[in-house]
Amino acid sequence: xxxxxxxxxxxxxxxxxxxxxxxxxxxxxxxxxxxxxxxxxxxxxxxxxxxxxxxxxxxxxxxxxxxxxxxxxxxxxxxxxxxxxxxxxxxxxxxxxxxxxxxxxxxxxxxxxxxxxxxxxxxxxxxxxxxxxxxxxxxxxxxxxxxxxxxxxxxxxxxxxxxxxxxxxxxxxxxxxxxxxxxxxxxxxxxxxxxxxxxxxxxxxxxxxxxxxxxxxxxxxxxxxxxxxxxxxxxxxxxxxxxxxxxxxxxxxxxxxxxxxxxxxxxxxxxxxxxxxxxxxxxxxxxxxxxxxxxxxxxxxxxxxxxxxxxxxxxxxxxxxxxxxxxxxxxxxxxxxxxxxxxxxxxxxxxxxxxxxxxxxxxxxxxxxxxxxxxxxxxxxxxxxxxxxxxxxxxxxxxxxxxxxxxxxxxxxxxxxxxxxxxxxxxxxxxxxxxxxxxxxxxxxxxxxxxxxxxxxxxxxxxxxxxxxxxxxxxxxxxxxxxxxxxxxxxxxxxxxxxxxxxxxxxxxxxxxxxxxxxxxxxxxxxxxxxxxxxxxxxxxxxxxxxxxxxxxxxxxxxxxxxxxxxxxxxxxxxxxxxxxxxxxxxxxxxxxxxxxxxxxxxxxxxxxxxxxx
Amino acid sequence: xxxxxxxxxxxxxxxxxxxxxxxxxxxxxxxxxxxxxxxxxxxxxxxxxxxxxxxxxxxxxxxxxxxxxxxxxxxxxxxxxxxxxxxxxxxxxxxxxxxxxxxxxxxxxxxxxxxxxxxxxxxxxxxxxxxxxx
Lengths: 614, 134
Description:
The complex is a heterodimer of chains A (614) and B (134). Chain A has helices at 6-31, 62-73, 79-122, 126-131, 147-156, 160-168, 174-181, 192-208, 211-219, 227-253, 265-272, 275-285, 290-319, 329-332, 339-361, 365-387, 391-406, 408-432, 443-447, 456-460, 471-483, 494-509, 557-574, 591-603, and strands at 36-47, 50-61, 516-517, 521-525, 532-536, 540-541, 545-550, 577-582, 607-611. With 614 residues, chain A is of the alpha/beta class. Chain B folds into 2 domains: 1-35; 40-132, Sandwich (Immunoglobulin-like), CATH 2.60.40.10. The longest helix of chain B is centred in the N-terminal third of the chain and has 33 residues, at 3-35.
């Protein structure tokens, strides 16, 4: 079982705390229950000329109290508009707040995650972390991960205090910096090996350092404000420490005194931290000649120095001022910092952050994308379905869906745009009162006898207005249509119409003046053993006749037979004569002949039939 | 499993949950915009005579999901016309408890007559409650 380190706990806390705060903030925004506020309003008014005093007392949430006050003081003319726009604005504000909260939560999560990852990655590289802890942009520090560095790290562990002290005191004085970065060489080399090593070291260092890097070496102590300088300082300080280590080993191997005081804190720290050095001393003491041992170790040291020089050259190339920038480039390289390097450092920070985030998300990118698409499609589709054909909903859903599909940041922007569009659309829908009334046929078209098939032109050519758009205009036009004409609804065929005309003529021939047109006749059906109320509407009914017009070519036997039986029963009940006038004479094999025979048999002389011929 | 993978999983799960919560809240609120309805519930109403004046008391509550905008008060279909500054439109937030008291002389509100007090809102709806003057 792994032991959880304190760093990880802290990192996890840093990661979880913003999440909890932001999530609770979201729920606070949604679930916040404001305190109630009481309001009292006295209204003096009149009703039918009499004075009436009205008092309205109500309790409302505090959040809406201001809105009410504004409504009181606001325009009185745009009543519904004011209220609705406020409601929409409040809703939009809530939505925006929620989205911002969500975006903040996402950003905090991403940042927290990166922080955790960084912490975990950095836990094994304490040296760099400790050295760069004085900088706020630690992520820009190059990682020192070569094998040679690790081998030296073991030997340098006890000297971290010295390293810290060196970094912290670098800003004190220039002379101190020089002492720190160029280790003092108080005495001449006492052995040939020492001289040789020192010579080689200086030669190697001078060959691998470009001029700008040399300058930066000298100024690295005060460039702690920029991450790039800190990175360079890390590398350089390590070299200096290695030089000091080599120097110390050589000197100690030659039994020289270790009480040299260089006048600097770093030197004192080196002298005082003797635990690791003692180990090396013990190792060296076992050999017969410390100088010979040091000379034998030199090839390895040289290879390590070559690697260091290579890294330093890369750093120098990375952070050097480009010659093609401007003529001001040399002036930008100054002791107190380099603007170009700062920009590059910032770019490097962002690049590292993006790279880390991408590396973390990369394995699960398809899952994330699929989740986002599914969630967005689900909720977007649900919202779109509820809104139907409303352009408002389409705008919001499309904007929201497209935005979320692109990226979180871009998505938030698109959703914001969608919210604005939705708010505008909602405002328009509420205030403009746009209702999609279905177009209906005009009153004239509905109530005028049309003896020819309607065409599209006739249907669209409405003498009247369209229902729902202007009721007053509609009524006015209907009254105009009614004024000088008889409006008779008719739904039958032309043959039936002709038969009806004949019915009227037939009645008038017999001096009938009172004719009821399709009046409802009600009777009780006793055939089924129960009193069954039925309703029929013969074409015409008079005091003496029940007359029905037929085309003679009806197709529905059951319907006509049922009608005939009801008419027959009514004629008996009301003691009237049943008259059938056929526009066309039914053919011999038509079922009408059977019904006519039945009528003749049942009613006898009270049944009258006339064929118009044809 | 390496620690990096665990951290990455935690990050992704947390991020997905946060995104889902945000989206759900957002879309729920988005849908609620179009699902709001207006409703007034009358708790009680009565008419009485107090201090030689007729009084009608109506207690109601805005039970709708949106603010209620009162644009007029009516008695038997006739608007009460404010004599001073017009307090309407009057916005009553959702959940508001309100009490309306109408005072008039006994000549105005006659005994034995039913009076229908109505609240007309900006949405065009009218909520009426009838009381009989004792």
